Amino acid sequence: MLRRVDETTAHAPLLPWKGGNDVENTTLEWLDWFNHRRLLEPIGDIPPAEYDAAYWAEKDCEETKGLRQPSLRYTAVHPGD
Q: Which of 29, 30, 54, 60 is the 20 to 30 A CA-CA neighbour of 68?
């Protein structure tokens, strides 16, 4: 796969890094771009995180179809009540 030069260098940090925080911040910025902003052609030119969210939303609906909503009320009986 060929990549455009501006695409790969747009996220390259200015070197040298001044410390561990610079490395960490640059890594986190790249991960954010890679998962949330990069458009991936094989999945319809959408970011991977968007595709993943849609997949799990659909899967959750299929698996929970027909189930009642669980109660948030605490119903256990405590001794001495």
A: 54
Token readout for 52 is 């993943």
* Per-residue CA distances from 51 to 34, 41, 64 (Å): 13, 12, 20
Please tell me the distance from the alpha carbon of residue 8 to that of residue 15, in angstroms, as a whole number. 15
**pLDDT tens digits, 17-54:** 889 999 999 999 999 999 999 999 999 999 999 999 99
The terminus-to-terminus CA distance of the chain in angstroms comes to: 68
Residue spans of beta strands (DSSP E) within 1-81 = none
Contact yes or no for 48/38 (Cβ under 8 A): yes
Between CA 71 and CA 78 the distance in angstroms is: 18
